[in-house]
Specification:
Chain lengths: 441, 419
C-alpha cells in the first residue's frame, strides 16, 4: 500500500511542479538556516570534557570585598579568578584529589637550528596534577611529578605541533627546548589536545581560541624565572609594589584554578574548607567581610562566564523562527493542494477507503516533500557551514563542522517538521464529505 | 466596494487565511528584530575611531631573553632596546612617523583604570571616578595616529618619561579626549585642571584635549566609557613593545614590508611573526568581524524569509484564483470590470496582511523584549516596526499582483460553462 501512496504522491507532485518546488525550496532553506546556526551553537555550547566535567570545580574567593565590585555590578559575585596569595594557599592546603593553579604565558622559543628566527608560543604554567586531572593525552612521555613542582625543575610538556616544528615529529622526550632563553627538558609531548572552550582557563582565554596550547611548564618554575602572565590582570586597587613580584603580592587577579572532587561529600568538604579559609583571612584582618565563596563545576562555570556568545544564541533563535515561517508556509500550500483534490478524495472515500487511508496517502505526500526539502537542506547546510567561516569570528567558525549526526539531523528535522506541517491539511482532507463531492460533480 | 462579501468569502477558507496571516505576522516580527540588529551593527562598525586610519599600521613584537624589567637597570636596558627600534623605524624612507604605544583603538587589548577629581586614599578601590582607558605613548602619538588636538598643546620631547611595564607611578601631565574632559568638567573647562589617576595621591595636569579617540575594547563591557581615553606621555618598557607607524601617503605596503627586515637587522633576538605587522584596516576588520558576520547572517535570514513569504502568498492566492474561477466569471458577466476583480484580490490581501501586521507588531515587540531580557538587546524603535509594517503590506501587494491580474483576465464567458 505504501508503494501505491508513494506513486500517488509522486504523480500529485508532478502535476503542480511550481507549487512543489516552492515547498521544497522553503523547507530546504528553513532547515539549512537552522542547521547551520545549530552547528555553530552545538560547537560552542558543547561540554569540552563530558566524562569528567561534573567532577572538576573552579573555586572563587572574594578577596576584593563589596567595594571591589564596582558601581555597575549589583550581584554579590566574587571575582572569577584568583590572586597569587589565595591560589598558593589553596595549592598548599591540597584539599582536592587533584588540583592545579595555572596562568597563561606567551614565551618565546628559540629553534635549535641556527638561522631560524625565534617564535612566540602560547601556553600555561601549571602544576603536575594538571595533566591527570584533565585526562590530557600524551603522544610521548608524561607530565611531571610533584617533586618537579617543588624543586622548580626546568621541565616542559610541548604540543605535538611544536614537536613537529622543533624536532620534526620525533620522540623528543629528554631533549632540550629553549624557552625565554633558558633550557628546559622535554618530559612529554601532547597528542591531539585542543579542548574548546578552554574550560580550564576561561577567564584568560575568553573561552575559544584558534591556536593550540604549545608549552606547559611548572607553575613555581615560571614564577621563579619571572615569566610574566600573558592573560588578563584585574585589579581593584593599584598594587603597592612594582614589577611581577609586586603583582604577586597584590590582590590583583590573574590565576585560574581547577580542582577535581569526585563525590558530593568531597564537594561539601571543600566548600566548608573554603569558608573556613575565608573566615581565617577575616580573623587575620586581610578580609573585612564575611566569607563569600563559590565552587562551580565546569558546566556551571562556563555558564556563569557566558562562554556561549549571545550572537550565536540569537542567530539560532532567528533561524528557528525562519524554519517555523517556512513550515507555516508549507502548511498553507499543502492545505490548498490537498483541498484542490477534494473530488479525488471523495471518489476514494466513496469506493470504501477509510479515513486512515486518506491520512496515510497525504502524510506520505507531505513526508516526500520533507525528504526532498531535507536533501536540498543537506546541500544548503553544507554551503552554510562552509560559509560561516567567512562571516563568523575565526575562533568560533573553526568549530562548526559538518558531520554524520548533523546530516542525519537535517534530514530528520526536514521530514518530521514537514509531516507535522502536513497534519492539519491532511486532517482537513480526511474530513471531505464524499457525498457532497460526488454530487457537485 | 463593500468589504462584506469579501469577509464572507474569507470565512469560507479560514485555515488558509489564518496561515497566511500567521506567516506575515511571524515574518514581520523576525524581520523587524533582524533589521534592527543589522542597523545596530552597522552603526557600531561605522563609528569613527578618531584616528586617521589610512596609511596607519601597527607592529607588535617581543624580545627574546630580554631582562625582566623588575629593577631599574633592566628597565633602562629595555628602554634602550625600544629606543633603538624607534630610531631604526623612523629612519625608513617610507615612514612618516612612529610612536611607541601600548594599544590602539579596536585592538581589544587594553589598560583601563579610572580618573577622579579628588586624590585617592591608600587602599581605596580604583573603581572610584570616571572609567578611562590609557594609551601610553610619546610626543609623536598625535601626528602618527592623526588625532585632532582641539585644546591645549601636544606633548613635547621633554614631557616624555619611561618606566617599567609593571612599575607604579602616575604621570604629571596627560592629554584627554574631549568626551572624558567634558565628563569630568561639565563646564568644558578641563584644560589646565588637575585630576588624579587610579586613586593616586599625586596630581596630574590636563595639558591638552583631542577631539575623539576610541578605547581598544569593542565588547559591550566598554559601552559605558567608549570615548574616554587618556594619553600618557610615557614609554612602557617590557619584554615586548608595540609601535604605531604612519606610512607616507600611498607607501603603506612598502613601509609594512620594510619593517620586519629593519627590526631583525637592529636586533635579531626577537619574535616577529605573520601577525606582528598589521595594517589598521586589518585590525578594524578583525575587531568587527563578529558584528559584520552577524549583520550578514541576519540579512540572509531576512531575504529568505521575505522570499518564502512572498512565494507563499503567490502560491495560495493562485490557488484561490483557480478555485474561484467560475465565481469570477459570474461577477464579470454581471458587469464587474477587470479592475474590480484585480482590486478584489488586492484588497483581500491587504485585509489579511493588515491582520497579520497587527499580530506581527505584537510578536515583534514580544521578541524584542525576550532579546532584551536575555541578550542585552536595546529597545526596538517604533520606526523599525512601522517600516516593517509598510514593508510586509507592500510585499503582500507585490506578491498578490500576478495572480490577481490573472484573475482579472478570466473572461465572463466562464460563467456560462459548467463547473
Amino acid at each position: 500500500m505504501f508503494n501505491y501512496y508513494l506513486e500517488l504522491a509522486l504523480r500529485s507532485l508532478k502535476r503542480s511542479p511550481g507549487l512543489t518546488a516552492l515547498m521544497v525550496l522553503a523547507i530546504g532553506f528553513g532547515v539549512a538556516a537552522s542547521m547551520t546556526t545549530w552547528s555553530v551553537f552545538r560547537a560552542v555550547s558543547g561540554d569540552p570534557i563530558p566524562w569528567k566535567s561534573s567532577k572538576l570545580f573552579v573555586p572563587q574567593i572574594d578577596m576584593w570585598g563589596p567595594k571591589g565590585r564596582g558601581p555597575n555590578k549589583t550581584d554579590n559575585e566574587p571575582p572569577d579568578a584568583l590572586d597569587y596569595t589565595d591560589a598558593m594557599a589553596l595549592m598548599r592546603a591540597h584539599r582536592g584529589k587533584l588540583q592545579s593553579a595555572m596562568y597563561q604565558i606567551s614565551p618565546s622559543v628559540v629553534p635549535a637550528d641556527a638561522g631560524k628566527h625565534p617564535i612566540n608560543v602560547s601556553g600555561h604554567a601549571v602544576y603536575g596534577e594538571f595533566f591527570p586531572m584533565l585526562d590530557v593525552p600524551f603522544l610521548y612521555g608524561n607530565g611531571w611529578s610533584a617533586d618537579d613542582d617543588t624543586q622548580r625543575a626546568a621541565v616542559a610538556v610541548i604540543s605535538g605541533k611544536l614537536n613537529d616544528k622543533l624536532f620534526g615529529g620525533a620522540n623528543s622526550v629528554g631533549r632540550t627546548v629553549s624557552i625565554e632563553g633558558k633550557d628546559y627538558r622535554v618530559v612529554g609531548v601532547l597528542g591531539n589536545w585542543n579542548p574548546q572552550p578552554r574550560f580550564y582557563d576561561v577567564v584568560n582565554t575568553g573561552g575559544f581560541s584558534t591556536g593550540v596550547e604549545d608549552v606547559f611548564i611548572p607553575f613555581e618554575r615560571a614564577i621563579a624565572m619571572g615569566i610574566p602572565n600573558d592573560g588578563n590582570t584585574n585589579c581593584s586597587e593599584t598594587p603597592a609594589e612594582s614589577g611581577f613580584v609586586g603583582l604577586q603580592r597584590s590582590s590583583c587577579i590573574w590565576i585560574a584554578y581547577m580542582v577535581q572532587l569526585d563525590d558530593a561529600a568531597a564537594v561539601s568538604a571543600y566548600r566548608s574548607w573554603l569558608d573556613g579559609y575565608a573566615k581565617e583571612q577575616q580573623t587575620a584582618g586581610r578580609f573585612s567581610w564575611a566569607p563569600n565563596n563559590r565552587l562551580r563545576d565546569v558546566p556551571a562555570f562556563l555558564d556563569h562566564e557566558q562562554v556561549v556568545p549571545s550572537d550565536t544564541k540569537v542567530s539560532l533563535l532567528v533561524a528557528l523562527g525562519l524554519l517555523i515561517v517556512c513550515l507555516v508556509n508549507t502548511a498553507g500550500l499543502l492545505l490548498a493542494k490537498f483541498l484542490r483534490r477534494s473530488s479525488e478524495i471523495g471518489v476514494r472515500r466513496a469506493l470504501g477507503a477509510p479515513r486512515m487511508a486518506i491520512y496515510a496517502q497525504f502524510l506520505t505526500e507531505a513526508g516526500m516533500i520533507g525528504l526532498a526539502g531535507g536533501v536540498l537542506g543537506l546541500l544548503l547546510t553544507g554551503v552554510g557551514v562552509a560559509s560561516v567561516s567567512w562571516v563568523l569570528p575565526k575562533d568560533i567558525a573553526a568549530l562548526a563542522r559538518l558531520d554524520f549526526s548533523l546530516l542525519a539531523l537535517t534530514l530528520l528535522v526536514a521530514v518530521v517538521a514537514t509531516t507535522l506541517a502536513g497534519l492539519y491539511p491532511t486532517f482537513r482532507a480526511s474530513r471531505v464529505q464524499p457525498a457532497w463531492q460526488l454530487k457537485s460533480n | 466596494m463593500t468589504l462584506h462579501p469579501m469577509i464572507a468569502a474569507l470565512r469560507r477558507h479560514k485555515a488558509g487565511v489564518v496561515l497566511i496571516a500567521l506567516q506575515i505576522a511571524l515574518t514581520l516580527a523576525i524581520v523587524c528584530n533582524a533589521v534592527f540588529i543589522i542597523g545596530q551593527r552597522v552603526e557600531r562598525v561605522n563609528r569613527p575611531t578618531g584616528l586617521d586610519e589610512s596609511n596607519l599600521f601597527l607592529v607588535s613584537q617581543q624580545w627574546v631573553g630580554a631582562p625582566s624589567g623588575d629593577d631599574p637597570a633592566s628597565v633602562e636596558k629595555l628602554d634602550s632596546l625600544q629606543q633603538a627600534d624607534l630610531a631604526a623605524l623612523r629612519s625608513l624612507p617610507d615612514v612618516a612617523s612612529v610612536t611607541p604605544i601600548n594599544s590602539l583603538p579596536l585592538l581589544n587589548s587594553s589598560w583601563n583604570g579610572a580618573v577622579d577629581l579628588k586624590p585617592g586614599t591608600t587602599g581605596q578601590g580604583s573603581f572610584n571616578g570616571t572609567r578611562t582607558t590609557y594609551y601610553f605613548s610619546d610626543e609623536q602619538a598625535l601626528s602618527t595616529l592623526g588625532l585632532h588636538l582641539v585644546a591645549g598643546r601636544n606633548f613635547t620631547v621633554a614631557d616624555v618619561q619611561h618606566r617599567g611595564f609593571r612599575d607604579q607611578g602616575e604621570p604629571s601631565l596627560v592629554i584627554l579626549t574631549k568626551a572624558l574632559g567634558d565628563k569630568l568638567f561639565p563646564k568644558g573647562d578641563a584644560l589646565g585642571k588637575v585630576i588624579f589617576l587610579n586613586g593616586a595621591t599625586t596630581p596630574t595636569t590636563i595639558i591638552g584635549m583631542v577631539e575623539r579617540m576610541q578605547v581598544p575594547g569593542t565588547g559591550s563591557w566598554t559601552n559605558s566609557f567608549v570615548w574616554n581615553a587618556t594619553l600618557v606621555p610615557t614609554r612602557l618598557d617590557a619584554n615586548f613593545a608595540r609601535y604605531a607607524i604612519r606610512a607616507k601617503p600611498g607607501r603603506l605596503d612598502a613601509a609594512m614590508h620594510a619593517v620586519t627586515p629593519t627590526l631583525y637587522a637592529a636586533n635579531p633576538l626577537r619574535v616577529l611573526d605573520d601577525d606582528s605587522v598589521k595594517s589598521f584596516a586589518q585590525i578594524r576588520a578583525e575587531a568587527y568581524r563578529a558584528d559584520v558576520g552577524m549583520a550578514i547572517l541576519m540579512g540572509v535570514v531576512c531575504l529568505i524569509l521575505l522570499a518564502v513569504t512572498a512565494a507563499g502568498i503567490v502560491g495560495l492566492t493562485s490557488f484561490w484564483v483557480g478555485q474561484r474561477h467560475r465565481q469570477i466569471g459570474v461577477r464579470r458577466a454581471l458587469g464587474a470590470r477587470k479592475i474590480d476583480i484585480l482590486h478584489y484580490f488586492q484588497i483581500e490581501n491587504l485585509v489579511i496582511a493588515s491582520v497579520g501586521a497587527v499580530i506581527g507588531l505584537m510578536l515583534a515587540i514580544g521578541l524584542n523584549l525576550l532579546l532584551m531580557q536575555s541578550f542585552e538587546m536595546e529597545r526596538l524603535p517604533v520606526a523599525y516596526v512601522l517600516a516593517g509594517i509598510v514593508m510586509v503590506l507592500a510585499l503582500g501587494q507585490g506578491a498578490v499582483f500576478v495572480p490577481a491580474r490573472r484573475a482579472s483576465n478570466v473572461p465572463p464567458v466562464v460563467a456560462t460553462r459548467a463547473a
